[in-house]
Amino acid sequence: MADGNREALNKDLAGRIVDTARIRAGKTWAELAEAIDKPLVWTTAALLGKHPLTAEDASAIGKALDLDDDVVESLQLQPYRLADQELATDPTIYRFHEALGVYGPALKALIHEEFGDGIMSAINFKVDFDRREDPDGDRVVITLDGKFLDYRW
Amino acid sequence: MADGNREALNKDLAGRIVDTARIRAGKTWAELAEAIDKPLVWTTAALLGKHPLTAEDASAIGKALDLDDDVVESLQLQPYRLADQELATDPTIYRFHEALGVYGPALKALIHEEFGDGIMSAINFKVDFDRREDPDGDRVVITLDGKFLDYRW
Amino acid sequence: MADGNREALNKDLAGRIVDTARIRAGKTWAELAEAIDKPLVWTTAALLGKHPLTAEDASAIGKALDLDDDVVESLQLQPYRLADQELATDPTIYRFHEALGVYGPALKALIHEEFGDGIMSAINFKVDFDRREDPDGDRVVITLDGKFLDYRW
Amino acid sequence: MADGNREALNKDLAGRIVDTARIRAGKTWAELAEAIDKPLVWTTAALLGKHPLTAEDASAIGKALDLDDDVVESLQLQPYRLADQELATDPTIYRFHEALGVYGPALKALIHEEFGDGIMSAINFKVDFDRREDPDGDRVVITLDGKFLDYRW
Amino acid sequence: MADGNREALNKDLAGRIVDTARIRAGKTWAELAEAIDKPLVWTTAALLGKHPLTAEDASAIGKALDLDDDVVESLQLQPYRLADQELATDPTIYRFHEALGVYGPALKALIHEEFGDGIMSAINFKVDFDRREDPDGDRVVITLDGKFLDYRW
Amino acid sequence: MADGNREALNKDLAGRIVDTARIRAGKTWAELAEAIDKPLVWTTAALLGKHPLTAEDASAIGKALDLDDDVVESLQLQPYRLADQELATDPTIYRFHEALGVYGPALKALIHEEFGDGIMSAINFKVDFDRREDPDGDRVVITLDGKFLDYRW
Amino acid sequence: MADGNREALNKDLAGRIVDTARIRAGKTWAELAEAIDKPLVWTTAALLGKHPLTAEDASAIGKALDLDDDVVESLQLQPYRLADQELATDPTIYRFHEALGVYGPALKALIHEEFGDGIMSAINFKVDFDRREDPDGDRVVITLDGKFLDYRW
Amino acid sequence: MADGNREALNKDLAGRIVDTARIRAGKTWAELAEAIDKPLVWTTAALLGKHPLTAEDASAIGKALDLDDDVVESLQLQPYRLADQELATDPTIYRFHEALGVYGPALKALIHEEFGDGIMSAINFKVDFDRREDPDGDRVVITLDGKFLDYRW
Amino acid sequence: MADGNREALNKDLAGRIVDTARIRAGKTWAELAEAIDKPLVWTTAALLGKHPLTAEDASAIGKALDLDDDVVESLQLQPYRLADQELATDPTIYRFHEALGVYGPALKALIHEEFGDGIMSAINFKVDFDRREDPDGDRVVITLDGKFLDYRW
Amino acid sequence: MADGNREALNKDLAGRIVDTARIRAGKTWAELAEAIDKPLVWTTAALLGKHPLTAEDASAIGKALDLDDDVVESLQLQPYRLADQELATDPTIYRFHEALGVYGPALKALIHEEFGDGIMSAINFKVDFDRREDPDGDRVVITLDGKFLDYRW
Fold first, then answer.
1. Residues within 8 A of E (CB atoms), A 50-79 only
2. Which chains touch B (3 or more CB pairs under 8 A)?
3. What ipTM describes this predicted complex?
4. Which of C121, C132, C133, C139 is catalytic?
5. Tell me, what's the pLDDT at G5?
6. What's the rounded mean pLDDT across residues G26-36?
7. Domains along chain J?
8. Where does the record place the catalytic residues (chains A, B, C, D, E, F, G, H, I, J) (predicted)?
């Protein structure tokens, strides 16, 4: 049978297909997150290829966006989460990296002062995204919330 | 006079001297922030060389830590805020960059959905650092709060 | 339906298609800018994939150049604005980067002297392009005009 | 004599010494430019090591800032004008490079449309720096003005 | 005959096809290792393209997963074992490289102290993979076991 | 007092001083590990600058090797654990990275199969070093033992 | 019409098609240069994609080599002249870069001594290629001839 | 004796010392070339550290510029001729590399057409430097003259 | 005719096609070298795309392996011999580069001591490959034999 | 005692000191190799810092060249054998790397054909250096002789 020589759809490509279908269907990321009852940032990242979905959630997204089966399959695959150096130059993403350049050493110093020698986990970790109204211009508010892991032998 | 041939103390070196003096004096970053009545993350970043201090604040820190005059002078200088690729490999700092690799495209997508085409400013921007107790292990909570800037011609 | 497995046309490719169609149609960038009543540099950048167009403007360009629907769709998408290191070696573009190598530190020093600690925004920012006649050879005159943003916590 | 084994003072170091002396003397870049009757951006770049000064100008700056003789000598030397990749990550300088990433291809296209195949010279070239008041926040205005050079065999 | 112009299937692609077929068939890596009676880590690496299989083993895998002939052929080819810098940024793989950054110099020092000047072979070398239950959370246990090779002229 | 202008001794330099003193004193790493009753690999890594020592342990090492006070101080400092790309080319260390190139994707696949989506922690992590006699040449046996961390929102 | 969705043929590809057609037709570069009455090095560079041809010249080449219309169109397009780092490792091309490594600083020093502060233009610039017979082995003689441009504000 | 622990003066440093002494003595490169009766470009390159001088020539230069003995010694040492990527960004030197980017593939094609498969030697190789008067601005004329070496097994 | 728009087959691809055909035909590299009466290493390198073959030799290989005409054509083309950084990480190839890291400076020193200032040519150069039996394990013996070229102006 | 704060002399520096002393003493590498009765290439590499010497050999070299004790100590230390990318651009060393670019894939293919899947060891490995007279110009002959290691689990 023909499947013996076909690799699964790449998750990056699946992510772009999802995004295209989402735009054509006039749906927001928030609506998709609601459809599978998952947090907003997690859902967006997962649909862009950074987390695997359960079969049930992938199927729900597939129905909502009228996706082909191999896209639905791809959404469930275990990702490679590669650091794309080129994406990091997009101005909207770059500002985060720049802020880490300015505040990274300070955050490291404060983690060590408050918690001891260790790290904030990026695995046991969640991210919230919010808008805060402000008369001087509304603000993007992003909260990183990760478990402290101490160097433990 | 001898000053005609001497450059000011490099701010990175000044930052390491401040850190050394702070440890020897048994002072926390929080105590230094309090001494100049500035936010914690800002103060830590500034003393590590990422922001200029006012003459008054620099002098207060100099007294608190018994610093030489050229360190106090250096703290007031305008910094180069260079992206140190090597520092980014420290595990405590790396986790932040890794998280941006995983969640960066999602944050970009959500900023555009919620605010339109633009960025979260890294200049009109502040960072909070917190500890949240959790029975499964306490958590590091970091809040990034920046003004939205739309692409405006 | 077949759309369930198709990603939108890449904006770089759309830009090259626009450029090809423009040349074949014998139209200048200025004529396209006029057709949508937008500034010249902005229009050229947007059509090359660096800014999203409104549906109305994309449609006007599509008619002017007889473009397919997926090109028109692509012009409206939110771009990734990636720093292409290789393009920066084209001699016409390289001269700008070289000039920044020579004058960048001076511009930084003057911004800080005149405005204080901060940056010239590249988001709230516009660019003008002009030709100035000169008996020793005409000159390219480019004006960068961006809002000053001070480091504000 | 001892000079047989001593290299001249490095121009980058000389630039940092000049900047330190300038700050300690409370002088602006504009005052130094006036002292040698040269344009502001040119003077700032030259004193930071990017252009050689005449003996007369170097000597005038030396007197104004009480510099040692080897600094005055260094200011007159022919520079290497190296592209410092790390400086390019300073946020104030980075915004210029980012803007070139966004508008560089458009500027290239417009130069070719208006002038033909060639470049804007970065040698026969000048830069102006201005502040424009604006109720929404003052603006940095930078004008690049270079001779067009056509590819000519 | 048409084969005169066709290159063999790339081993990386063959590896992705194997992985896709494995998932669709609901088989574990352990089951495939058992099918050819080879160690678990070796089999997984080989099927992902890092070691050549014998014709017999490739054929057994081909039957188990209903693979096309050119996939079966590709599994037997001699690999290029290239260091993929981008894969190294996947968080699951990155942790190993990070651990080498922290413990590499120590392991070098201990190899030299215990064995003399030389290396642990990565060719005469095997890897075991295990799960160890632990009330604080189960642990991944990986054993590297390589022949010591002394610098011998 | 003079300390107001002196940074602490760099931990890499302290590590080289410890190593030199150890060789001159004819002591093994194992003897130093025993002196502070810590595991062998941990102790070696820590003395080379990768982990902070307690004041008591640093002092014990200082006495054992007749170290100056600033070396003893440096051993207690919080490290930057930077990935030194150049050290990774040393043949003894390179073999580990090469092995990860060959077996990394397999280890990732097996971690996901056995544990689900997540990583082996490099923080809650230990390393053992052993020699196993073998008639074909003794073998280096290194065990990596880290807690599994699942992606948990 | 179908052209609404097709980009022009890439100039690098067009160059490889020209080269293939040239070899199949048994024509030398010199014969092609003669056919359009242009210098040898210029013609070769232009046909390989580094300079735009006039419509007339492109058409003449198209007839001489029986090229398709989109190749002829591509030859007339404005090029990106990108620095291909990989091509620079070809031994025949590498020797030129190596020679610049050895003699570049000397050429810079001599340009400044003879002409003052400035550059040899690479735009107002031509290259000749010659063979000189020599009993010790014939020699390649390449002449670079560019206008001096002084740094002029 | 003290020499048992001193390395020879680095040739790059020696080159900078020679250049400094040359400027202070008001001598041109041409005068130094004449002093040792060697070609101009060769002498300049050699004095900047790219070729070893004979003892006699080094001594003559040492007398002409009143150099210390260790500079004279350094001039005679065998050089490492390293490709300095940073120097290659100096505008005066960069133009040569840019020209190779544009004309390198053409020169390769012409060498192969005229001489067969091989290279122009960069070892059996000389460089001439000239000024040619031109009413449109004088020109820098540089001639590269190297023996053709064919790939010969 | 359709050839007006087709580039010749890439030599790397041709090399992979040759290798595939060779394996399928059960032929060794040595048999192919014998078929065209050329040295073993030269033939292998040439068939992998690193040297051009004569029409006669290409045709003989084409018959021996039943290759299509465009493969036979490709084997005769002049190659680009690019340094593939990624191939250099294959363990079998890496060991050679590592050995150069260890012995390169020594080989340079010995070439200069024995021959004077110059290089071993990599163009007038041949490589032999041999197996030497050894009771401790057979050995790979590779001989590099290149003409000495002295720096000659 | 003062040694408590001093690291051992770096082996690269020690290598440069040895080389300087060797030149001043008018000794060849061959004479030094003879003095310690070791092979020529091995001795040269070891004295340049790539292998540790025994105390006896280091002492013999120290006497032959009148070296200070810390140089003699440094010669005995275990080296880091780092790949110096910059040294690889020296023309004499570069030719070897270039030859590997051209012949590396062929050598890999031949090793696999003759020996099976594995590598030529760079540890159980030796290098000979020879001069072969040739009427067309003497030749450098370098023999690499390493044990074959097969991938063995």
1. 77
2. A, C, D, E, F
3. 0.96
4. C121
5. 79
6. 98
7. 2-75 (1.10.260.40), 90-150 (3.30.1160.10)
8. 95, 98, 121
